[in-house]
Amino acid sequence: MIPTLLGITLFCFFIINLAPGGPIEQKLMALRFGSSTSGSGGHSSRGEGNFGVSKEVMDALKKQYGFDKPIYVRYGIWLKNILTLDFGQSFSTEEPVTQVIASKFPISLQFGVISLVLTYLISIPLGIGKAVRDGSKFDVGTSVMLMILYSLPPLILGILLRVYLSGGQFLDWFPLGDLYSDNYAQLSTWGQIKDRIHHFVLPTICYVIGNFTVITFLMKNSLLDEIKLDYIRTARAKGLDEKTVLYKHALRNALIPIVTGLSSFLSVFFAGSIIIEQVFNLDGMGLLGYKSALSRDYNVLMALIFFQALLALVGRLISDLSYSLVDPRIDFS
Predict the structure, then answer these.
(1) 52-61 confidence digits (pLDDT tens)
(2) 134 found inside a domain
(3) 6/137 same-domain check
(4) What pTM value is reported for the model?
(5) Do 271 and 126 share a domain, yes or no?
(6) Is 142 within the bounds of a domain?
(7) Which of 34, 96, 163, 303 could form a disulfide with 87 if both were Cys (CB 3.0 to 4.6 A apart)?
(8) What does the alpha-carbon distance between residue 8 and residue 10 come to, in Å, rounded to a whole number?
(9) Per-residue pLDDT tens digits for 78-127
(10) What's the domain range around 307?
(11) Is residue 333 part of a domain?
């Protein structure tokens, strides 16, 4: 895990820092456009660079932000700092990076946890039902419905939900954006819960709709493969009832591929979708990463990459260890 994490951060650090238009250039360009609109003209005097500042000023800015050192030296400094979870300051807001991420964290965490729980609570029973009734009208009908839902782009689905269910032009069942109403603080505890659920419905649908198909078909096919094996025939030959054969013997082994998907459960802490957050006016991790990339906010980008990579690797480790709980035949020793 350690060399993998180092490899991810090293590769991303170099790619991000080699992209044209760094944070200094972004700031100078913003200042130049600001001065142009205020009537200062924005012309460079003799000996000035492309952004209307002298070389001495540019060198001073690079030294202030640490860009006067070679890229490999900066990576070493960055590695040393993250040992104490010091990710520096955001170039855009000039706030500590951890504070910037913490402000967006609750939004993405809520949708990530809800999406993960709903996906597995619905997909696993549905996959089992499809496997038990393989080839029936229920199986075919649900397969068609799942494929239609899977083929819907999140952007189109989000726009359709807003237009038809919350835009007011057709139905006005759900609020248009944000996470709670303006009078949220004056509501009772139960009222606040209902208000949150009311605001969460449409974004949550967009978050989970594509995951249902993958997990459901994986559960169905895995269970069908187990049912065809010899030990299931033996169990049936011994006179065991069908429910015991399916749910006590076949299902446990069929869940092994599903456990692999649980490796992403830690990643829900930093889950985020640029499209969904933009459509439903949610200021979460996805939008933060997108804006940081546009503004070349290196520190925020690297912090997001580091946390996402770390959680993904830890999730993979937990997933591997979970195999031995699902199937005692698996031994990592």
Answers:
(1) 566 777 777 7
(2) yes
(3) no
(4) 0.76
(5) yes
(6) yes
(7) 303
(8) 6
(9) 999 888 888 888 888 888 998 998 888 888 788 888 888 888 899 999 99
(10) 97-326
(11) no
